[in-house]
Amino acid sequence: MSRKLAKACLRSMFERVAECGDQARAARKLLALGRVDEAMNIAYEIEPLLYEANHLMQSASLLRREGKEG
Fold first, then answer.
1. Are 11 and 68 within 8 A, CB to CB?
2. Do residues 61 and 5 make contact, with C-beta atoms less than 8 angstroms apart?
């Protein structure tokens, strides 16, 4: 069961990271155009997604380890 939960956490983490990548590419284009404020707004939107992705990764790691021990 722990390994299934770990896989679910990883899938969710990958979705968050992919979404961040899409937004980061858009922000980079805005920055190249000199639209710093708009790029910064996107950066503010990305930060919570990265925070969530980090916690999902930590959860997956713990669940994976638990699955190996149990």
1. no
2. no
pLDDT, tens digit, 9 for 90 and up, residues 24-63: 999 999 999 999 999 999 999 999 999 999 999 999 999 9
pTM beyond 0.85: the answer is no
CA angle 4, 53, 24 (to 5 degrees): 135
Location of structure tokens 């916690």 = 55
The answer to whether 53 and 17 have CB atoms below 8 angstroms apart is: yes
54 in helix, strand or coil? helix
H or E element, residue 29: helix 2-32
Residue corresponding to tokens 């990548």:
21
User: What does the block give as tokens for 11?
Assistant: 């899938």
CB of 12 within 8 A of CB of 62?
A: no
